[in-house]
Amino acid sequence: MAKHTAALKVGLALLALSMIGYIVGPPLYWHLTEALVASTSSCSPCVCDCSSLPTLTIPKGLSNGSFADCAKHDPDVNEDTEKNYAELLTEELKQREAKSMEKHKREDTALLEAKKIASSFLKEADKCNSGMETCEEAREKSEKALTEQKKMTSMWELRARQKGWRDGATKSTVKSKSSVQAS
């Protein structure tokens, strides 16, 4: 059992070391190679002004004199380009303004529609509330009438009992009276 746990610990330690090497190794390798290259290089860094050199060189036999003139600064062309650029920007701003106005108009109509729907729901709610109040008033009135009717019934029942009335007595007396009348 002890051999298995020791082997497991050694295996986990090797796995951890290999993962650390896998993660830290490549950046460390590149930093070390850059340091070695920088220390072995005896040449100082080059300082060049490449802005005056053309990016594309054309062989002398194929060169066109007007192509070299294209790269030169022409104030007339530059001014026309700036005007066109300003016109394009103005047109784009107008289009964006028109789109935003259209969007604003759609949102306003949607807001008005929502207000109309909310108003109709409020009207329906008011109708429902007034109907509920009417029903509640009618229920209260009927409850009062029922209470008064129960009082009257109990009072008449008490008077009838005082005069000798019983629950089963009325049915038998009614039957006996009807049988007497039939004979």
UniProtKB/TrEMBL annotation:
Q: Which GO terms describe its cellular component?
A: Golgi apparatus
Region Disordered, annotated ranges = 138-183
Extract the Pfam families matched here: DUF1068 (PF06364)
According to its UniProt entry, the protein's GO biological process terms are: cell adhesion; cell wall pectin biosynthetic process
Q: Output compositional bias ranges, type Low complexity.
A: 170-183
Composition bias (Basic and acidic residues) maps to 138-151, 158-169
Name it: DUF1068 domain-containing protein
- Organism of origin: Eutrema salsugineum (Saltwater cress)
